[in-house]
Design goal:
The chain is built from no helices and 12 strands. With about 180 residues, the chain is mainly β. It has a 6-stranded mixed beta sheet, with no helix packed on it. Strands 7-8-9-10-11-12 form a 6-stranded antiparallel beta sheet, with no helix packed on it. It starts with 5 loop residues before the first strand and ends with a strand. The model has no long low-confidence stretch (mean pLDDT about 85).
Length: about 180
Amino acid sequence: GDSNVGITLKDRGGEGSVRAIGNELTLNTSSSETERMRISSIGNVLVGSSSSIEVASSAEAQLQIQQASDGSRLGLSLMSIFNGSGPAAILALGHGRGSTSGVLQDNDVIGNIRFAGGDGTDCQTIGASIDCKVDGTPSGNVMPALLTFNTNSGGASATERMRIDASGNVGIYRACGLEGG
């Protein structure tokens, strides 16, 4: 029951270990026991960091990959070596209401990509985002969707600047309103 009690498994050369202490698990490399990955007490997987950082949201990410501070390693890379025309590397974002196949409704967010930078306070304010939303009524393998492209011009949140709707129409927004359709 003591959170300081744990078990450590070391390789024969003492160059790395897997350590379970309390309710966390860490993977360490080198003789200096440099931590490379952690599974936190709430199940978050942290790579390159021992604590969660809130990025583009005040919520912790369940999987967080932190780039090396010297820029020597990328934060995340997806690569396909399929011998043919596809599939390529895929980043799949999905959303279902209440279950993996729960039917979404018009205007529900299917997924979004957020870009946030350090602003002197934290890294939660979104500078830009791309959102995918339901654009109509989903049913039987039909998922009408639209994309919005949003930027932040200096406020607390990003504002929609461009939209591609389910019909393929493109709208570009300016300070005075919609300019094209």
